Amino acid sequence: MQLTYSFRVYPTTAQENKLLDWLDLCRRLYNIALKERQTVWKKEQRTIGYNDQQNNLPAFKKVHPEYKAVHSQVLQDVLRRVDTAYQNFFSRRAGYPRFKGRGDYSSITYPQVDTVNRTFSRLEEGFIYLSKIGYVKIRIHREADLSTARRINVKIKNSQWYVNITCEVRERNPNLLLQKSIGIDMGLSSFVATSDGQLIDNPRHLKKKEKHLKRIQRQLSRKQKGSKNRLKAKNKLSKAHLKVANQRKDFLHKTSNTLVQQYNIIIAEDLQVKNMTKNHCLAKSIHDAGWSRFLSYLEYKAKKHGKRFIQVPSNNTSQLCICGADVPKDLSVRVHTCPKCGYTDNRDVVSAKVIESRGLRLLSAA
Ligand SMILES: [Zn+2]
Questions:
Q1: Which residues pair with 181 in a beta bridge?
Q2: What domains are there in the chain, each with its CATH number?
Q3: Residues 185, 299, 326, 345: which is the catalytic one?
Q4: Alpha helix ranges (H) inside 69-140
Q5: Helix (H, G, I), strand (E, B), or coil: what is residue 114?
Q6: What is the pLDDT of residues 94-135, one digit of tens each?
Q7: Is 83 in the active site?
Q8: Which one from 77, 83, 345, 348 is the annotated catalytic residue?
Q9: Ligand 1 centroid vs 317 CA: distance in angstroms?
Q10: Beta bridge partners of 266
Q11: Annotated catalytic, 185?
């Protein structure tokens, strides 16, 4: 299984200029390669593939010596992207490949990482080595095992630089001697409720930040179009957006880490978030809560640590008791009281228990 870690990097001005040069050269190469495929097809009704184009790279560099500055594997990756765009088109996963305008090309990829060489040799001092760019300052904000790194992608987003490091993770065969399980219910009053009675909330500072975002948004709309001030306000807004997004991710990472560390079997609902977001008034809270991202974090972290993560159908989980009785209640009723067995608890915790028992039943049947 592959796992990608994302870290912020801080290139020097010289390094940044180089990276921006590379991005532009790569974007132009992408367009040239696309054009070549189209022309050959039009003139000769013949397709040229990745290998043909890759074999032509040395000759191409002779005519365009500026490309000698770019790492050759990075250039190969550009051709690979053109190829992938065609493959996706042929298999109807995407539309016809399009030319990339300025700003449409925001990342470069080193498709191979030689971990024995310099790449991570100064990681502890806070530097990553990018071939032909140099040692770039990096902030490793969370624990990461990079010993199996396969690929490095360098990306610019809102004038900030990131590296995405893709690692190969061996799947450990889960030996679930300790069958400690937990069910989780995703709700609107708390972010998640667990079957052992925890209610985990969205951090309050995020809610405050969202109000702040709205204020900057309003400021922006008052600025005159095309003015310098508007541009400034725009930058401020995108920075603030990014900050909130990062904090939200951080919360999701921490919460999913805790659950995966503490339990061997994690059982969640199959939410079909997409269907739910069609309902307009629920939509915002669902997006904000980032449930689908949370579920994907749980899934890959469970895999990484040899734990089980399963999802069960979510129908009716809030209308049942753990004894099996129907206990219908609308959203405003926060406490579950079962008329049959007398069990009383927070409604979301009861849902989490129902989810847990569904999952365990599924596992024992398998
Ligand atoms: Zn009951």
A1: 265
A2: 2-168 (no CATH), 181-202+254-365 (3.30.420)
A3: 185
A4: 72-90
A5: coil
A6: 889 999 998 899 999 999 887 666 899 899 899 999 999 999
A7: no
A8: 348
A9: 13
A10: 182, 309
A11: yes
